[in-house]
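Aim 2 progress update. The chain analyzed this quarter is reproduced below.
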Amino acid sequence: MNFPFHRSKRDQPEQSWIMRLLRPEAARSSPALFTYHLREKLGLKGCPLCRMVRESEEHWGWTLLYEFTGDPEIHERFARAGGLCAEHGELIRRIVESRQLVTPSGVARLYETVTRESLHNHLSAGGQDCPLCRYRRQAEERYTYFLADTLADPDWQELFTHSDGLCMSHFELVMKQANHEAAEFLRNDQSRRLRELLLLLQELQRKQRYDVPEPLTPEESASWHEVLWRFGGMHFDHLLVHD
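Predicted structure tokens:
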């Protein structure tokens, strides 16, 4: 590859690249500050881990565009990956159009290298994972570990029961990290939520029949929304982090 910047060392470990963009999230890597943010997310709709991971992605994207568009290692990683996937490309677009202190020139600078290398490699689009997808997996591992540890505390278990709980994907990840007590609590909690959701879905169908005059409850009306995020994870059509 022929980059317009000083080449980084090939033997530099992958983790160094990840950690350089973790700096805005360093505070959330401590259990105490994780629980501070978790408490806030438990009071909002939907899966709290989906929200925390998405906020981390937004911090990553903003920091990338604000601090690292001139970094040769970043250019090399982007070129090898062929840029970002469609989902994270859309997230970057929203960040550029919504956040202060970042401009389209940052995207142009990164993708100038991606485009040049694609031409140099006979239109190859790169072969590595999207850099932000890799970061998301790192964030999920970190957050699910902390949540598994947090849910060993009965006080946090009580607080968690009054939230909307987890999507199935994050439930499975937390279960892999949880000790016996936390796993038993979380399994019972998720089973309860799914049983309640099943009843709501059944009532939604029954009450929408033409011969049933009973009105839908708000919970029944919202059940089809819940089942989509419960099994598919949460999708956000707007930024969660603002200036």
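DSSP finds eleven helices and no strands in the chain. The chain has a mean pLDDT of 88. These observations will guide the mutagenesis experiments scheduled for the next reporting period.
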